[in-house]
Amino acid sequence: MENISDKILKIRSEYGDKALVKEDLNPDPIKQFESWLENAIEIEASEPNAMAISTVDSQNNPRSRYVLFKNIVNDSLVFHSHYESAKAKEIENNPNVSGLFFWPEIYRQIRFEGVVSKASREVSDEYFKSRPRGGQISAWASDQSEEIEDREILEQKIKELEKEFEGKEIPRPKFWGGYLIDIHYWEFWQGRKNRTHDRFSYSKVDTEWKTVRLSP
Ligand SMILES: Cc1cc2nc3c(=O)[nH]c(=O)nc-3n(C[C@H](O)[C@H](O)[C@H](O)COP(=O)(O)O)c2cc1C
Cα of 200 to ligand 1 centre, how many Å? Predict the structure, then answer.
């Protein structure tokens, strides 16, 4: 049987050859991000708003997971999660995060680094209200990141909550809400032929963004 490294040797995708030049970049990286995300949505990229977020725990052990980007508030990227989850504790201990978007269909990656804070009650409530009831109940039911003996326990809890909230509006749990990522470093990567990609970074210098081309 062919081993995994032989299989991988046969994978040799080329990453298109769409040029990315400095003149095409918006001087505001949030606008540039929006424009790339819009492109990804237009071409129906898979899970276009999925972003990987990396935190560090109290032992400086780096930890990554995907979350869904949901909004831009005060020029910060918003995602929603459990406020007592592992990631929440890590953010409390060290609010510095890095993150990624990857849209393989258009050979684009965005990297960012920033500082996380909790979103306002209004931002969290507004999004929670927009969630389907199933997602609202699931937020109540899950002690995110805690060990759980059996899936049955979770399903039982969901049944009880469905009864409890029957015919009622489901309030947002206090332990669940939004986070804002205030980004001070962005990197936009456009895959190109022969691994000779285009890559630009934006760094915040005082209040201005400095954009430079990086070697791929
Ligand atoms: C595509 C995708 C999107 C996800 N979106 C979210 C999200 O928006 N919020 C969230 O708390 N977890 C989300 N998750 C689950 C997280 O990756 C993770 O398992 C969970 O938040 C627990 O992480 P933690 O133990 O590091 O806190 C998503 C997972 C995937 C694969």
Answer: 28
66: Cβ below 6 Å to ligand 1? yes
Residue 66 Cα to ligand 1 middle (Å):
5
| Phi, psi for residue 58 in degrees, rounded to 5 | -65, -15
DSSP letter string, 83-126:
TTSHHHHHHHH--EEEEEEEEGGGTEEEEEEEEEEEPPHHHHHH
Cα gap 33→152, rounded to integer Å: 41
Torsion sign over Cα 12, 17, 22, 24: negative
- Report field, pTM of the whole predicted structure over 0.85: yes
User: How do residues 53-93 score in pLDDT, each as one tens digit?
Assistant: 999 999 999 999 999 999 999 999 999 999 999 999 999 99
CATH code assigned to 15-130+176-213: 2.30.110.10
Q: What is the pLDDT of residues 113-155, one digit of tens each?
A: 999 999 999 999 999 999 999 999 999 999 999 999 999 999 9
Atom of ligand 1 nearest to the CA of 86: 27
Structure confidence at residue 170 (pLDDT): 98
Ligand 1, pocket-test mutation among 68, 124, 172, 180, most atoms within 8 A of CB? 68
